[in-house]
Amino acid sequence: MLLDTFSRPLRNLRIxxxxxxxxxxxxxxxxxxxxxxxxxxxxxxxxxDRLAGIFGGLGVRKVRLTGGEPLxxxxxxxxxxxxxxxxxxxxxxxxxxxxxxxxxxEALRTAGLxxxxxxxxxxxxxxxxxxxxxGRHAEVLEGIAAAAAAGFESVxxxxxxxxxxxxxxxxxxxxxxSSRGIEIRFIEYMDVxxxxxxxxGQVVSQREILEAVAARHGEVTPLREDDWAxxxxxxxxxxxxxxxxxxxxxxxxxxCDRARLTADGTLFLCLYGERGLDLRELLRLGAGDEExxxxxxETWSTRTDRGAEERAALPDRGVLHQIDSLRAxxxxxxxxxxx
Length: 339
Ligand code: SF4
Description:
Layout: E1 12-16, H1 45-57, E2 62-66, H2 76-84, E3 91-96, H3 101-111, E4 115-119, H4 125-132, H5 137-149, E5 154-161, H6 170-178, E6 183-188, H7 206-217, E7 221-223, E8 232-235, E9 241-245, E10 258-261, E11 266-268, E12 277-278, H8 279-284, H9 289-301, H10 307-312, H11 323-328, H12 334-337
Parallel strand pairs: 1-2, 1-10, 2-3, 3-4, 4-5, 5-6, 6-9
Antiparallel strand pairs: 7-8, 8-9, 10-11, 11-12
Helix pairs in contact: 1-2, 1-9, 2-3, 3-5
Bound molecules: iron/sulfur cluster (SF4).
């Protein structure tokens, strides 16, 4: 097993297949314009497939396809089919905003995708217009229904909760999910690259979320079954299970086994990481699998990242990157490195 300097294994790889998105959520892409990765730099399916095989050989067992919005990448089921052939990659998942999911859910399932997570921050279509500059709320709901019907091993919902925007919907979102037999995870607003409107006052903490749920539903019991999962899961008296990802107020870097591959083939070891390893260059200069594996292993074994813990320790925590710094290097954006 490949371990970093804090004995964290490399087991989990998030692969961003595009930096493009068809929404503009205020916690991720609030600006009017963006600098995009050059098209020629985007990894082909064959290049992603080759890297996935190398990562599988290094101990990665879970792959999650992200973006941007991954379903904007043409013919994504073909990539899923390629990745599903790698025996070590036992868990193949997708995070999507759901807009295009209804038309692709069955093909993705048939291709070998096991799990789907759909972002749903509001149940109010008009609020999605202001929150994410998208009027396609009905398509997101159709996508969730299609995923639930397609036979995936799991369908989950993610909701980023921001004070003053959707913190009055925690209970409604929980009810929406539980009435459909779907698990929802509430995510604290994070100060990652791209969150240029972030401030601590807008963060709705795990504690507040649990208090709101307990006030309506009674005792909230923590389930402590997987220390390596980002979400802490809870059970309600009626059996409903939900999760909270408390990355901002209760960071979990000590159990972080995740690496991130941007759409242009840069490997980052942390959502907050400043420098990445350029795997595209290695691929395109003709490096062999063993050489690439050795570079990844060397990089992971010297990993010291614990970005969220370091941010939490700051006395005066503000925005991570200003707009100029994001424009100078779009790989700093969460939508580029797969949040
Ligand atoms: S901040 Fe970095 S090290 Fe910490 S959990 Fe997130 S990705 Fe992992």
